[in-house]
Prior knowledge:
3-stranded antiparallel sheet, 8-stranded antiparallel sheet, about 15% helix, alpha+beta, Glucose Permease (Domain IIA)
Amino acid sequence: MSLYPWRKYGVVVLSGLLFACSASKTPAPVASVDGNDRVASGGIPVRSKTLSGSTYTVQKGDTLYSIAFSAGSNVPALASLNGIEAPYNIYPGQKLRLHVFDSQSSGAASGGAVMVGEPIARPTTSTTTAVASTSTPSAGQTTQWVEKKTIAPTPAKEYSDKTAQNNNTSVMSGDWRWPAEGKIVEGFSTAEQGNKGVDISGKKGQPIYAARDGKVVYAGSALRGYGKLIILKHDEDYLSAYAHNDQLRVTEGQSVKKGMVIADMGSTDAPDVRLHFEVRYKGKSVNPMSYLPKR
Length: 295
């Protein structure tokens, strides 16, 4: 019997396997500091969730501001938790605590963590009135006492934060400007995996402006998914972030004025040329459209 037909069959099978391998263009998965990157078309990583876990090991290029930004926290709270004083110097390999645990809080009682910067529920220190039980105790029993609080309960955190923002009129639209010209291609979302800012499309190299007076507290590319990123500190409560830049025009520690060119628009860690712009209030993402003037 001739072996030729079997050789021919083997060549066909081998060719098919090689074609299948060469046709696969799926990129290798991209891992972030918390392992939760989403991947856009073309294998480009997009913004991931905030840091999870109770601790984080400092990497080269990190600053306390960039870590607080990724953790959805604020620098004063993070510094206080880790015993770090101004000017908040950290070093690679240093392990930082990101969360606090408290047995008196409902989160800790169920094994959860309380985020840095969020208040922990503790017994009130307000004046209380002791009220004796209405039932008469029998011999050998002690009287039961009940604390009657004389103050109204603390408002829900969500309501308190919203009220604080609405009352802070000094940072409303009159103090802010648009960071770039262009069309909004992705809006703000409150969903867990939603967009934590607004994305503005444009052309590569077009100017990115400081949205408000401030100081550059981060300028680099260490935050996976943000590309070349700038973070401005405006006051003790507000930060703004400018991501996916092509070139950075400012350096850390530099003071900037509203309208100053701080970067060139680009597509670093993005599926196309765009600016991802965020506003953070006490470490929490808020809708930039609440601050930017109408256009």
